[in-house]
Write a structure and sequence with these properties.
Length: 208
């Protein structure tokens, strides 16, 4: 997979394919980079337009405000995460959980810039937009919980606190976006595989 420093311009076929027209897509990707670099509150619409190679006025042709840009980024990020988990397959519960964790953690590494904005700027959303994103987060949590619950029902996982275990798994994967840097010791795929192995060790029954 080809990547760029702007976590998106060469990855339009992945996270941003559905955003049209091209100018709106470029503006959204530029906002991701600006928010990740400076933080939402310190970023101006002029900063975003400059990164996109457009005039400041161009922002308002496609987005009513800086907050609407953040909302659209949050929607794309959470909808992508949910879609990845919803497409997870496997022959048994252990394989499904392995694939789910590997995919989820790997995405947070591969798209770390986007993921940092999606996961750590939620408080800047308006109450209405926050509620919409929160529902997507609940769906993601339910999907991941279902993978663990399947293993409990099949007798291959031992999880006394299903909700707590689910939150622990999600937090472990999401935190990758905070520390991951390209060029490190492990690729996103290798991180996904490592985290999947760690999670399976967490949920398997203890052997006396």
């Amino acid at each position: 997979m080809t990547t760029t420093g702007l976590d998106g311009f060469a990855l339009l076929d992945e996270t941003w394919r559905a955003v049209t027209p091209d100018a709106a897509r470029r503006m959204l990707i530029a906002a991701v980079q600006a928010f990740a670099t400076k933080g939402y509150h310190a970023t101006t619409t002029r900063d975003i337009a400059s990164l996109a190679g457009m005039s400041p006025a161009a922002v308002y042709i496609h987005y009513r405000s800086k907050e609407e840009l953040l909302f659209n980024i949050s929607l794309v990020g959470h909808e992508t995460s949910l879609a990845l988990l919803s497409r997870t397959e496997g022959g048994d519960a252990e394989e499904r959980l392995r694939n789910a964790v590997a995919t989820f953690a790997g995405w947070h590494a591969e798209f770390h810039t986007t993921a940092r904005v999606v996961q750590y700027e939620l408080s800047a959303l308006s109450p209405e937009h926050h509620a919409e994103v929160a529902e997507l987060r609940r769906q993601i949590e339910r999907r991941m919980r279902s993978f663990i619950a399947d293993g409990v029902e099949e007798g291959v996982f031992e999880v006394p606190d299903l909700k707590g275990a689910t939150l622990a798994v999600l937090s472990l994967c999401i935190d990758v976006a905070r520390w991951y840097q390209p060029g490190g010791k492990r690729t996103p795929d290798e991180i996904g595989a490592l985290y999947a192995d760690l999670v399976l060790r967490m949920v398997r029954p203890l052997v006396n």
